[in-house]
Amino acid sequence: MNRQMMCLGLFSSMAACGGVRDLRPPNVRGDALPAATEHRGKEAVEAMLSAHGGLDRWRDFNFVSARASDEWYNTLYWRLLAPYRDNPEWVAVAAYVHDFPNARVQFLGGKNEGEVWVSRGDQIWRKNVDEEAKVIHVDDKGIFTTFAHGFAYWPTMPFALATADSVAYVDTGEWEGRRYDRVLVSWDGLAPKPDIDQWILWIDVETKQLDRVWFTIRRVGRRAQGGYNLRHYQWVQGLKVPTVLEALLKPDGRPLHVYTYEDIEFSRRVDDGFLRSVR
User: Fold this and answer.
1) Across-strand partners of 119?
2) Can you tell me the distance from the alpha carbon of 243 to that of 230, in angstroms, rounded to the nearest whole number?
3) Which residue among 60, 71, 130, 230 sits deepest, i.e. has the most Cβ atoms within 10 Å of its Cβ?
4) 178, 210, 215, 216: which is closest to 194 by C-alpha?
5) What is the C-alpha to C-alpha distance for residues 64 and 12, in angstroms, rounded to an integer?
6) Closest alpha carbon to 158 in 261, 24, 37, 46
7) What angle do CA 231, 121, 117 make, to 5 degrees?
8) Per-residue pLDDT reduced to its tens digit, 113-170
9) What is the full DSSP assignment across 109-126?
10) What percent of the chain has pLDDT over 90?
């Protein structure tokens, strides 16, 4: 069994045959949902966005930069899944927040020091300091693409999900002793589609903070799914963003690996220099 198939097998049934995974619970399936279900879901998302600083403040910025690390708790999973050779791995991240994926990841130390990944549209340029740049099509390397895009995406997740045009309230549940509204969001309808992900958001009933997400990973496989716990929020220039994200393979499982962010900075500048081809 090659590395790619081993990686696929580590996600929940992602290599299995069958239809596209559907995260909709029974109460939000069907062609016509009750108006109250959609309305309550939208209200919860709007309250979440307001609690994180609001869309108006988010729209003030065009660019985000940060230092980030990725630390794995299981050596086997790290060797099979992570596309870098140190644990933990430290990188510098820069990205456009309204035009994703347009992002750059540069490795700051260890065996990958100096390596650069540049994402633009449906391609990623990957350049080692001693090699020519390699061009990767995002759909051909699903697992690598998830990591290349993820470093820049995860800390802005509460706002990035605001683009979802399909929303439904699912239910109210508990996690770690707190009550949460669970809301399903997607794009172009809530029904499963082979190239569009579904997300379930856990929004704290009292604080309106987004503390958990569970989602499909269509780019990796039709059945692939995963999640994150969002922790240690900080206010950065009027936006409330997570600085620690725990990656999950099972909703109630232990974290597989953890992203940590430092020196997050938003700006209004528009500078294409960091995205120029690394060739």
Assistant:
1) 103, 124
2) 8
3) 230
4) 216
5) 32
6) 46
7) 65
8) 999 999 988 889 998 877 788 888 888 888 888 888 899 898 899 999 988 999 999 9
9) SGGGTT-EEEEETTEEEE
10) 66
The model scores a pTM over 0.85: yes
- Side-chain-facing half-sphere of 172: CA atoms under 13 Å: 10
Instruction: State the pLDDT confidence band at 8, using cuts at 50, 70 and 90.
Output: very low
3-class SS shares of the chain: helix, strand, coil, % to 5: 25, 40, 40
Phi-psi region of 121 (alpha: psi -120 to 50; beta: other; left: phi over 0): left
Distance CA 279, CA 261 (A): 28
CA dist., res. 151 & res. 105, Å (int): 8
Alpha-helix runs per DSSP H in the chain = 3-10, 35-51, 55-59, 75-81, 142-153, 157-160
Structure confidence at residue 276 (pLDDT): 64
Torsion of CA 81, 138, 163, 194, to 10 degrees: -90
Which residue reads 């209004």 in tokens? 268
- Kindly calculate the radius of gyration of the chain based on its CA atoms and give it in whole angstroms: 19
Instruction: Tell me the CA distances in angstroms from 263 to 69, 144, 207, 234, 259, one per residue in order.
Output: 12, 25, 25, 11, 14
Tokens 């029974």 — which residue?
A: 26
Given this model, what pLDDT does residue 2 score?
Answer: 40
